[in-house]
Design goal:
By secondary structure, this protein is α/β, with parallel strands linked by helices. The protein folds into 2 domains: about 210 residues, Quinone Oxidoreductase, Chain A, domain 1; about 140 residues, NAD(P)-binding Rossmann-like Domain (Rossmann fold). The chain is about 30% helix and about 25% strand. It has 13 helices and 18 strands. Strands 3, 5, 6, 9, 10, 17 and 18 form a 7-stranded mixed beta sheet that branches. A 6-stranded parallel beta sheet has the order 13-12-11-14-15-16, sandwiched between helices. A 5-stranded mixed beta barrel has the order 1-2-7-8-4. Helix 6 packs across helix 7 and helix 6 packs across helix 12.
C-alpha cells in the first residue's frame, strides 16, 4: 500500500531544519504484515529528543530512514500467528520490542532485549525484515516503529493494547516520554514516599519523571533546567522548588535541601547535566541517568564517593520498563487524574510541519509536540 511518511535523507544537516529540511515527506510503499507482524494506522506521534539526536548525528542510524518512535495507533490488519489483537484495537507502540527468549527478556528485563537492540541498530523490524520501500529502494525502520507516517507495519512485540477510552493523542506520549520518565522514577530509582527528588532537564521525559515523582509520593521535588519557562511549567505541575542550571546551581540546591536530595534524575542527555545531578545527590543517595548523550561523551565522577558516601549510580533505558505491565498501570493513573501528562502537550502539527517542529524542539521552545493524522 502507498502511504506518506517522513523520511530522514541523511544525518547531520545544519539547522534551521525549516530551511535545510532533513526530513522529506514522500510517498513510500508499505508491505502488509508478515508472520508475527501487525499493520496499524497511526493516530498521533510525538516529537522526541531521541528523534532529534538521529537527525543531528548524535545517535547515528542508517539512512534513508522513516523516523518516529513514540506513537499510538489503531490495528488495521494482523499477520499470521497474531491471535491476541484484532482490527480496531487501540495500541501504543513501544520502541524496544521484546523477543521474550534472550537472557535479559527471560530475567524480566525486556528493555535490554538483545535481538531488539541489534534490529534497532540495523534499522529493521525484530524479524530482520524491512517493510518500507521507496521507488524500489528499501527504507530503514526507526526503532522498529517509524511512526511519522500514516500507517506502519511493526512486530507484534512492539505493541501494547490499551483501553479504547484513552484519547490516542494522549496515549502516544506513553510510548516513550512516560515509559522512560515515570519508569526511571518507579522502576530504576524506586523513589519512596516522603523522599526528596531532583529532576535535571525538563523536556518531555523530565517533566514526565516529575509527574511520576509526585505520583510516587515524593515530599520535595526540585526542578532544574536552563529555561525559566520550563521551570515555571514544572512549578505549575507540582515541583516544590525550581533552580536554573548554572555554575552555582549545585551549591544552591545542596544548601536548600540540607545536603542534597535522596534521588537525582538526569534527563537532559548531557554530561554537564549528569555531573550536576551527581553533585546534588546526598550521602547515601541515588543518581539515575536516563538521558542519551553522544556516544563519544565520557563521564568523570569522584570514585571515592561511591564507597565513602555509599552512593548508587544507575542507568535507565526506557525506564527499566516491562511495557505490557507498566503501560496499563500508568494509563490507569492518567485516567484517575494522578498522572496528567496531557499538560505536557505544547503543539499539534501536520506531518508537513515536522521540520519546523524539530526546530522548536532543538531551541527548547516546546515540551511535547505531536503530529496527528485523524
Amino acid at each position: 500500500m502507498k502511504i506518506r511518511a517522513a523520511i530522514l535523507e541523511e544525518i547531520g544537516r545544519e539547522p534551521p531544519y525549516a530551511t535545510t529540511r532533513p526530513l522529506t515527506i514522500d510517498e513510500v510503499e508499505l508491505a502488509l504484515p508478515g508472520r508475527g507482524e501487525v499493520l496499524v494506522k497511526i493516530s498521533a506521534a510525538g516529537l522526541c529528543h531521541s528523534d532529534l539526536s538521529v537527525i543531528d548525528g548524535n545517535r547515528p542510524r542508517p539512512t534513508p530512514m522513516a523516523l518516529g518512535h513514540e506513537a499510538a495507533a489503531v490495528v488495521v490488519e494482523t499477520g499470521a500467528d497474531v491471535d491476541d489483537l484484532a482490527k480496531g484495537d487501540h495500541v501504543v507502540l513501544v520502541f524496544v520490542p521484546s523477543c521474550g527468549h534472550c537472557e535479559p527478556c527471560a530475567t524480566g528485563r525486556p528493555a535490554l532485549c538483545e535481538p531488539a537492540a541489534a534490529a534497532n541498530a540495523a534499522g529493521t523490524l525484530l524479524s530482520g525484515a524491512r517493510r518500507i520501500t521507496r521507488r524500489g529502494v528499501p527504507v530503514h525502520h526507526h526503532l522498529g516503529v517509524s511512526a511519522f507516517a500514516e500507517y506502519a507495519t511493526v512486530s507484534r512485540r512492539s505493541l501494547v493494547k490499551i483501553d479504547r477510552s484513552v484519547p490516542l493523542d494522549h496515549a502516544a506520549l506513553f510510548g516513550c516520554a512516560v515509559l522512560t520518565g515515570v519508569g526511571a522514577v518507579v522502576n530504576t530509582a524506586r523513589v519512596t514516599a516522603g523522599s526528596t527528588v531532583a529532576v535535571v532537564g525538563l523536556g518531555g521525559v523530565g517533566l514526565a519523571a516529575l509527574l511520576g515523582a509526585i505520583a510516587a509520593g515524593a515530599e520535595r521535588i526540585v526542578a532544574v533546567d536552563l529555561s525559566p519557562q520550563k521551570l515555571a511549567l514544572a512549578k505549575q505541575l507540582g515541583a516544590t522548588d525550581g533552580f536554573e542550571a548554572g555554575a552555582d546551581a549545585a551549591v544552591k540546591i545542596r544548601d536548600a535541601t540540607r545536603g542534597g536530595v535522596d534521588f537525582a534524575l538526569e534527563m537532559a542527555g548531557s554530561v554537564q547535566a549528569f555531573e550536576l545531578a551527581y553533585r546534588i545527590t546526598r550521602r547515601g543517595g541515588t543518581t539515575v541517568t536516563a538521558g542519551l548523550p553522544p556516544p563519544s561523551a565520557m563521564l568523570q565522577v569522584p570514585a571515592v564517593n561511591l564507597v565513602a558516601e555509599e552512593r548508587t549510580l544507575k542507568g535507565s533505558y526506557i525506564g527499566t520498563s516491562v511495557p505490557s505491565r507498566d503501560l496499563p498501570r500508568y494509563l490507569g493513573l492518567f485516567q484517575r487524574g494522578r498522572l496528567p501528562v496531557d499538560r505536557l502537550l505544547t503543539d499539534r502539527l501536520r506531518l508537513d510541519q515536522i521540520n519546523e517542529g524539530f526546530d522548536r524542539l532543538r531551541e527548547g521552545r516546546a515540551v511535547r509536540q505531536i503530529i496527528t493524522f485523524d
